[in-house]
Structures are given as C-alpha cells and as structure tokens.
Amino acid sequence: MKSIIKGMGHYVPDNIVTNDDLAKIMDTNDEWITERTGIKERRHVGRDGDEPTSILGYKASLKAIENAGIDKSEIDFIIFATLSPDLYFPGCGVQLQNYLELDTIGALDVRNQCSGFIYALSTAHAYIQAGMYKNILVVGAENHSFGLDMTTRGRGVSVIFGDGAGAMIVSASEDDSSDGILACNMHSEGKYDEELTMAFPGTKYGWVDKLLDENYEVDYQKIYPYMNGTFVFKHAVTRFPETIKESFEKAGKSIEDLDILIPHQANLRISQFLQKKMGLRDDQVFDNIQKYGNTTAASIPLALSEAVEQGKVQRGDLVCLAAFGAGFTWGSVLLRY
Ligand code: ACO
Q1: Does the structure show a pLDDT above 80 at 22?
Q2: What gap in Å lies between CA 301 and CA 303, rounded to an integer?
C-alpha cells in the first residue's frame, strides 16, 4: 500500500508584524533580525486574538480537504502536531474532530515541536501501510504569539517565531500514478531537552505551588520559551544533512534525483548552510521564513502548501522534507508528490 499526498492547504492569520513593528516594543532592529535569521515579518494572532491553534489548524484543514477533492466524511483519522495547544490537555486533535463534525474518528496529538510534522507524517504513513486508515488528515499548527516574551528580555527568541498552520491529506493508494512517501526516519536526543524548551506548565518545577505563593519570584526563563541559540544552530547543521542522507539511502535514491528540499523554516542561515553543504541550486530549496518566521510544527506543511500553490512543486516531483528542533528531535521524509 502506498501513502500519497492527496492535497495540501495552509492558513496564516491576517495580522502582519514586521521587524520594525517589533523594534517599537523591544530593543531590536530590522538589520539584526534580517542578518541573523532572514526573517522580515511574521503573522501574530496576538494575545487578544480569537484564533487559538485548533482554529488555525481547522482553517488550513478546510483548504487541504478542498484541494484533495474529497468529502470531509472520507477522513478516517487525524494527527495534529503542535507545541502550542489551546489547552494543556486535551490536545488540539479532538477540537479539530469537533469543528469538522467528523463522526468519532480517532485524533492523535504529536508533541515534537519543530519536528512535529515529520513525526506526524511518518506516523500517518505507517498507519496507511498497515492498512488501518485510508485518508488521514495531518496538521501542523502553532499560535506562538500567545506566549512569547514581547519585551527586550525575550528578544533572542520572540523575534524568530510566528503563527500559522498547514494541513495535508495523506491517502492510501494502489494506483501507479504516484509512489507517494518513499522513506522516512525520526530521531531524538533527550539529553538536550532544556536547550530549547518551555518549562511552564510542565510537572518538573512545581508550578502550581509556586504560582500560588505570593512571594514567588517569577523565573522568566522558565515561564517563556528558552533557546540556547548557538548550541541549537550547531546541532541543526549536523543533523539536517544526516537525516536527509538517511532517507535518500533508505529509498535507494541519489541527491541528484532531488527536485526540491523543504527544510523546517528554523532560520534562513540554517537553510543556506544546508543548501551549500548539499550542493543544491537556489531553485532546489524552498524558503518562506522571510514572510512567516519560524512556525515550528506548521512550517513544513505551510512551506510545502505554498510551494505547490506557486507551482514550485509539481505532481511527480521528488521532494524532501526535513526538520530539527526541540528535544532535540529531528527527521526527514522523502516523497514523490
Ligand atoms: N535584537 C537585537 N539584539 C539581540 C536580539 C534581537 N532580537 N537578540 C539577541 N540580541 C543580542 C544579544 O543580547 C547579544 O548581545 P550582547 O552581545 O550584547 O550580549 C547579541 O545580540 C548576540 O546574541 P546571540 O544570542 O549570541 O546571537 P546569535 O548571533 O547567536 O544569534 C540566533 C541568535 C539568531 C538565535 C542564533 O543563535 C541562531 O540562529 N540560532 C539557531 C537557532 C534557531 O534558529 N532556532 C530557531 C528555532 S529552533 C528550531 O526551529 C530548530
């Protein structure tokens, strides 16, 4: 049984936040952000916004369903990847099941941050190969702006992240029109769990007692996302090429066969490093971080969907998706679109 990509969709909130907008509320500037990350603007739902993560995912899902040309009732399973769920629990998958009014189908949440979509898609592929499901809705969505430290204290992290969502319909197929997913791999290295993390409201640091104690001095590094940027960068540029090579080897393909690489949009410098290391042309790497920032689990489906919409990915193209992020976790998927 093959798992083919039947349709893609994406959605971003309307509110555009430029680097100059950020410079009005914290000590930063367009030059610093552009030079270090390539980002020019991102979308923010904002603290008072009415689009929690599940709604972003829902809007992207409607587009993916339309693009796939199926009726939503044909979806028999949901996998939702996010690090910014509406509620601490339950996860966003069940909310999406409810919004789509799908009859009690299963909904699985994936908590693998920037690699979330790769983990989610690999899982969908395995379920389809096992014959369990026929049309799986795989979603990556994030509403980061609800919980970023939008002051100078948080500038090293907050300027990088944006909100958005991407969705994909992965379907079982026995027809010869596409090979679909050819290979995938997933990895983790949990000893680095706190190099890129948000501790609150996890169970490790006794939050409930702390927050109820009026003498508690807030440790902002634990309440807001924390990132050891240089450390993350160094690991990312090693793991990306490793995981990509692994998928090519598993699929028996050579890098020369690649039409386009869609890396997780972590940082334009990481993509450029990767492009150079793999000897790829400009048209073989798709980036949209300039417009959306790093949207974590949403970044790969958002980029693939946009690349499809712009005609940069065509049916039959050999596409490699790859991610690295918090955990650390990383992985890649090689597919024939
Ligand atoms: N605006 C202006 N100055 C800033 C900002 C900002 N937004 N943020 C930090 N600075 C200052 C720092 O305070 C520091 O000042 P100092 O020298 O006076 O102390 C100076 O800039 C350098 O700070 P660094 O953190 O060392 O900056 P660096 O050059 O390492 O760049 C960055 C930071 C862009 C995060 C870099 O480490 C990086 O690219 N890391 C890769 C990680 C990444 O991209 N993660 C994305 C999310 S994770 C993922 O998706 C895999």
Answers
A1: yes
A2: 5
